[in-house]
Each structure stands twice: as C-alpha cells, then as structure tokens.
C-alpha cells in the first residue's frame, strides 16, 4: 500500500512539473559536456527549442554575443563546486530574440551521496530587469542633472567673486576641469564683437598640458571670422561640437605642422567651442576638450550645458570689464588728489599709496607733506570712513581744508578742530581719522621740536637714532565728526596736542589702518609687527628704503583696504 501511495505522489509531481509555467531542466554531470537529459514543455515555450533539439546538448546554446561572461563563469564555478546558484543573465531564444533569464541550478545527490543530476529552473524576468534598468537610468540622469546644477552654481560663484576679467576667466576654467573637461581655454577679445582675441586662461587635468594649450592658441592665431572653429564662434556663429576629433594632428591641421605637433602631444579626442556673450555681443569663446584615452565623447546635451555656463560667464566677464574701467577712472581721480612728495631741506620724505580691493577699490586714505612758509614742516595722514567715490571726494575736501589751516601756521590741535567744524557744518563726510604734526625748523644743536594731534588715528611711530621706538599716542582725541560739539568754539580749549624733541637722525612713520585691520588677524599683533619691522631695518636707512621694507613685510597678501604710508627722516 505504501509503495502504491509513493508511486501516486511521484506521478502527481511529474504531472505538476509538466503542467507548470516554470521552465525545468535536468542535466547529467556524469556525461561528457554536461548535457541536458530532460526539459519540460515550459522550457520549449520559453526558449522556442523543442525537446528533441536540445536533449543531449549543453545548455550554453542559449548564450549569445551580449551574455555576460562573468555570470557564465560564476555558474561554471558553482557546477564544479557542486553547489546551488541563482543568476540573471541575457539569453537568446531559438528565433534570436533576447530575454533576461533568471536561472536557478541545484545539485541532486543519490542515497550514497553521489552527484547524479543538476536541476535547473528558468524564468523570464525581462520586465523586471527592464524596469530596474529604467529606474537606474532615471537615477543616474537625476544625479547627472544635480551634478550639472552644482557645476553651474560653483562656476557662477567663482566668477562673481572675481576681481577682474583675467581672474574671472581663470576661475571659470578651473571650475570646469576635470568635472566637464580634461582641458579648458577661455579666449576674450580686446573689444566686444570684434578685435583680437587673447587666451586669458587655460586649465588642464594634467598641469603640464596647460603650456601646450597656450602654445596651440599662439600658433593658430585665432581671429574673428577666421577659418578655425574658434574664429567662426567669435564672429557670432553658433557653437561648434566635434564629437570625435581626428587622431592625427596632420588631419586636423594639414597646413600647420607646428600646430599638428602640439595637437599630437595633447591627445585630443572631443571638443566644444561656445560663444561667450553678454548684452547681445560676443565677448569671446569658451573651449572645452577631452583627451585620449579616458576622455568621453561630447554630445549635444554637453553642448547645452556648456552654452549655459558660457552665458553666465559672459555676464561675469562683462561686469568685470566695466568694473575695471570704472576702477581705473576712480583710482586716477584718487591719485590726482594726493601730492607728489619730495625731500625738503634737511629732511628725507617718502610715501606710498596702495589701492585695496574692497568695495569700489577706492577709499578715503590720504597723506600730505607741507613745506610751510614759517620754516616748519607739516605732516598729515588721514582716513575718511568709507570705500567709494564719495569717500575719495570727501578725502580731497578734507585734505584741502587741513592744508589751508596748516598754511596759516596754526597749531596741530587747532588745525584738527577747524577741520572738525567744517566737516560737521558742511556735511563733508560722516567721520574721519587724522594725524597732523608740525616739525619745527632745527635748533642750533640740530634737534627739532615735534608737536602733533591725533583724531582717532593709529599712533605714528618715532624711531630715535639709538634705536629706541616710541609710540606717539599721547593726547589722543575722538575722530573728526564723531562728537558734535568737540570742535565748536564754545567747547573749551578743543583738541590737545603733544610735544616732543627729536634729535638729528630721528625717523617718523605714519600709516593708515589698511596695514593693521586685516580679516582674521588681531590688529594689535599687526601693529606690533610694524614696530618690529621698523626696529629691525638697518640703522639710518633712507626714508624710501624704510617704506619699501615695511611694506615688504607688513603688507597683507590680499589688500582689502587702502594703505597710505609716510616716512620722514630728520637728517643729522
């Protein structure tokens, strides 16, 4: 009875395997080449192969040109190691159509533990794989779009913080390598819409290629409307995309052997040249290049991205160009307000004015040296609050007022008082700092009397002949314009002044806070650096050498604020 029930169960299993929609196969590993020995009807329905054509053959006939060799190798390893495995691989039906096949293979052992068969189950999972591939493709496309947005944002940020046209071009080139290109060049014309282009910036994944890219620009001598891709783009034509460049330079430049040699050294593969436009004018061209062996082949999608970047670059470059023009005019105006200093009898004088990069790059710093009619020498250094043309204009007015009262022979405190009155009465400026000093004619022993008043300005430094350093910080008073009543006649004696006798050989150094107010640094530490530098200069150094030595050590790498520096040596 038990044998009868077992036979019934076996027959039921056989009918179930024949009736199921899942493809079943049995192979015999004991025969040469591990052939199929049985397949169910679902296998024929799945693959199109009838049992008579496949029994006795190895199942590799389902593989084709795009079947993954790595997946096939993993199946082979599992068969040799007599273990189960499930793989998804691309197979081909009898009519040649491809499908994704999920193959599960399990070993079958007899009662003695000997391997007798492998059972395989195949299922068509094409729809599942296609959906997964589409999901991955959509994810990759979204990631690419996010990467492009990041690149656009980074390039825009870099260019908007540029300090000039060349700086903007260099920042643009660096922001695109290596994310979008292996090499990048930016050519800008000296006059928008026409003129001679100059290669203002290059960047390359390999820094050694940058000089070669500059050399290629020199050799090709691009000009508007010329025979090159760059020349056509500069003339206002559409962007140029060359997905696959010739491998040999002689094919690209048949009549230019020098350029062809550089071309071969650069290993160029694909190139885009897009116009850099702003306000309806072509300013230049942006060239993006990939290199063999790893550079990608540019597509139209890449060209759209490059054109978007070039549009943003055009605005940044045009703004930088306008800024440079305005800045040059403003600096010319500001420098015209400063005096030409020269030595006077018995005194060495040297001055320097450095323009900062903050705001509109002009400010209210000034210095002045007055050979007064009574034989004294007037010295002034000041700083009007602000960094714009208004501050520069106020500086000119204030300097003129100070000169006027100093010329009358007034004492330093009185001169600053009168400046304060006019600043407040005429609304010339919001506030200003200033130091005014008088150096009297020498006494018979050669010494001179120094008197000075300080309205909120950094203390001048006095270096005596024996090397003693003195901060002239006595009798300091508020800034000009800071206290409404300070300079009024009704306010009492007004600003006090300090007096000091200076022996022959004394050195005076007056400066503005552009040397001390540096972002991220302590102002007191910067002031001490100036003092140490001054003491460390050679004894008896000429005034011009003092100015040069102090600036060499103490000038910040990135000068945010203007600097006025005045050195005066009272000769022995």
TrEMBL record:
<feature type="domain" description="PAS">
    <location>
        <begin position="5"/>
        <end position="58"/>
    </location>
</feature>
<dbReference type="Pfam" id="PF01590">
    <property type="entry name" value="GAF"/>
</dbReference>
<dbReference type="InterPro" id="IPR000700">
    <property type="entry name" value="PAS-assoc_C"/>
</dbReference>
<feature type="coiled-coil region">
    <location>
        <begin position="123"/>
        <end position="155"/>
    </location>
</feature>
<dbReference type="InterPro" id="IPR003018">
    <property type="entry name" value="GAF"/>
</dbReference>
<feature type="domain" description="PAC">
    <location>
        <begin position="83"/>
        <end position="137"/>
    </location>
</feature>
<keyword id="KW-0175">Coiled coil</keyword>
<dbReference type="InterPro" id="IPR036457">
    <property type="entry name" value="PPM-type-like_dom_sf"/>
</dbReference>
<dbReference type="Pfam" id="PF13426">
    <property type="entry name" value="PAS_9"/>
</dbReference>
<dbReference type="InterPro" id="IPR001932">
    <property type="entry name" value="PPM-type_phosphatase-like_dom"/>
</dbReference>
<dbReference type="InterPro" id="IPR035965">
    <property type="entry name" value="PAS-like_dom_sf"/>
</dbReference>
<feature type="domain" description="PPM-type phosphatase">
    <location>
        <begin position="348"/>
        <end position="570"/>
    </location>
</feature>
<dbReference type="InterPro" id="IPR000014">
    <property type="entry name" value="PAS"/>
</dbReference>
<dbReference type="Pfam" id="PF07228">
    <property type="entry name" value="SpoIIE"/>
</dbReference>
<keyword id="KW-0378">Hydrolase</keyword>
<dbReference type="InterPro" id="IPR001610">
    <property type="entry name" value="PAC"/>
</dbReference>
<dbReference type="InterPro" id="IPR052016">
    <property type="entry name" value="Bact_Sigma-Reg"/>
</dbReference>
<protein>
    <submittedName>
        <fullName>SpoIIE family protein phosphatase</fullName>
    </submittedName>
</protein>
<dbReference type="InterPro" id="IPR029016">
    <property type="entry name" value="GAF-like_dom_sf"/>
</dbReference>
């Amino acid at each position: 009875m038990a044998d009868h029930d077992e036979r019934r169960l076996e027959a039921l299993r056989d009918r179930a395997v024949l009736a199921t929609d899942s493809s079943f196969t049995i192979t015999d590993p004991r025969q040469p080449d591990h052939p199929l020995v049985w397949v169910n009807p679902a296998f024929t329905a799945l693959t199109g192969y009838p049992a008579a054509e496949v029994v006795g053959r190895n199942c590799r006939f389902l593989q084709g040109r795009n079947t993954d060799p790595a997946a096939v190798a993993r199946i082979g390893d599992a068969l040799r190691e007599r273990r189960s495995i499930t793989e998804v691989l691309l197979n081909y039906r009898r009519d040649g159509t491809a499908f994704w096949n999920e193959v599960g293979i399990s070993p079958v052992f007899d009662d003695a533990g000997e391997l007798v068969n492998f059972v395989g189950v195949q299922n068509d999972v094409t729809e599942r794989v296609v959906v997964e591939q589409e999901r991955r493709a959509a994810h990759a496309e979204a990631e690419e779009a996010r990467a492009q947005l990041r690149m656009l944002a980074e390039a825009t940020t870099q260019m908007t913080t540029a300090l000039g046209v060349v700086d903007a071009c260099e920042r643009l080139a660096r922001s695109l390598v290596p994310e979008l290109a292996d090499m990048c060049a930016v050519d800008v014309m000296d006059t928008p819409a026409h003129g001679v282009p100059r290669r203002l910036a290059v960047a390359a994944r390999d820094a050694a290629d940058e000089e070669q890219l500059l050399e290629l620009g020199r050799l090709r001598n691009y000009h508007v409307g010329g025979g090159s891709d760059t020349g056509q783009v500069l003339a206002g034509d559409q962007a140029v995309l060359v997905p696959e460049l010739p491998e040999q330079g002689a094919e690209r430049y048949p009549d230019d052997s020098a350029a062809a040699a550089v071309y071969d050294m650069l290993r160029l593969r694909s190139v885009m040249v897009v116009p850099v436009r702003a306000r309806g004018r072509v300013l230049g061209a942006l060239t993006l290049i990939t290199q063999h062996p790893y550079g990608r082949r540019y597509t139209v999608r890449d060209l759209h991205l490059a054109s978007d970047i070039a549009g943003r670059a055009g605005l940044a470059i045009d703004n930088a160009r306008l800024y440079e023009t305005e800045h040059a005019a403003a600096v010319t105006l500001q420098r015209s307000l400063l005096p030409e200093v020269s030595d006077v009898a018995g005194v060495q004088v040297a001055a320097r004015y450095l323009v900062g990069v903050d705001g509109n790059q002009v400010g209210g710093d000034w210095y002045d040296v007055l050979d007064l009619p009574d034989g004294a020498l007037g010295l002034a250094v000041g700083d009007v609050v602000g960094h714009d043309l208004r501050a520069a204009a106020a500086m000119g007015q204030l300097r003129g007022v100070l000169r006027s009262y100093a010329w009358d022979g007034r004492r330093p405190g009185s001169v600053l008082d009168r400046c304060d009155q006019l600043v407040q009465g005429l609304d010339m400026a919001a506030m200003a700092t200033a130091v005014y000093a008088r150096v009297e004619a020498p006494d018979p022993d050669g010494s001179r009397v120094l008197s000075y008043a300080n309205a909120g300005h950094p203390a001048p430094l006095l270096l005596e002949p024996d090397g003693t350093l003195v901060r002239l910080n006595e009798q300091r008073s508020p800034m000009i314009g800071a206290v409404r009543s300070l300079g009024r006649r009704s306010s009492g004696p007004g600003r006090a002044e300090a007096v000091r006798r200076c022996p022959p050989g004394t050195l005076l150094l007056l400066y503005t806070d552009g040397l001390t107010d540096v972002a991220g640094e302590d102002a007191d530490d910067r002031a001490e650096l100036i003092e140490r530098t001054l003491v460390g200069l050679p004894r008896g150094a000429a005034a011009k050498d003092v100015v040069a030595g102090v600036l060499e050590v103490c000038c910040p790498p990135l000068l945010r604020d203007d600097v006025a520096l005045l050195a005066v040596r009272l000769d022995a």
